[in-house]
Amino acid sequence: MTLHADVAELLAVAGIPGVDVDDAVADEHVRWSAYRRVVSVIASSPSRDRDRDRDRAIVATILRDPVEMVAKSAVVALVDEIAMRTAGPAEFREWASGLLPEIDGLEGEGHREFIRRRIRDWLFHLHVQDGHVPTTAELAEVTDWMQRTLAEGSRSPAVLALLAESGRRKKTRNVAENRARSRELRPR
């Protein structure tokens, strides 16, 4: 397929009218914006209606983009949005496993590894949301981004204490320590 056909197909599948496909093909910034809209529509479908084959086909189409950075960024945006809307780690793991063969098609190993790493980070996050308190070693396995995300969003005093003590970056440790002391986490 051509890039024009791919972009037109993605917009049609997501039901997004009014995007000039010729402009999207000519300008990677316009194309990224179109992909971002597609990702938002796809991710907003309720998990019970999520079609893994459709999502895999969308990822495969996006990954054919000639600008690998645009493709990688769009797939990461989809992974992020699905992870934030999923019911738990098992559901997300099942969904993400369908993407891995498509992700392996990326030429740049760095891009492949970045997406795989993001999936691992989100699995970790979802386990923590389910009540798992990680060990220091488990915490060391996630990215600085995920440590900061947990420091900024976790409501678990145990997780915040771990991050305040063992977070990789000083900013992460400070955020976790401040949030652990804040009124919002104290029992009423």
Structure description:
Helix 1 (3-14) runs parallel beside helix 3, helix 3 packs parallel to helix 5 and helix 6 runs antiparallel to helix 8. The mean pLDDT is 92. The chain is an all-alpha fold. It has helices spanning 3-14, 21-26, 28-43, 52-62, 68-85, 89-97, 100-103, 109-129, 136-140, 144-153, 157-166, 170-181.
Layout: helices, strands, pairs:
Elements: H1 3-14, H2 21-26, H3 28-43, H4 52-62, H5 68-85, H6 89-97, H7 100-103, H8 109-129, H9 136-140, H10 144-153, H11 157-166, H12 170-181
Helix pairs in contact: 1-3, 3-5, 5-8, 6-8, 10-12, 11-12
Q: Percent helix among the residues?
A: over 70%
> Roughly how many Å is the radius of gyration?
19 Å
- What is the arithmetic mean of pLDDT? 92
Largest sheet: none
Low-confidence stretches: none
Shape: elongated
Secondary-structure element string? HHHHHHHHHHHH
Keyword list:
188 residues; mainly alpha; 0% strand; elongated
Brief rundown of the structure:
With 188 residues, the chain is an all-alpha fold.
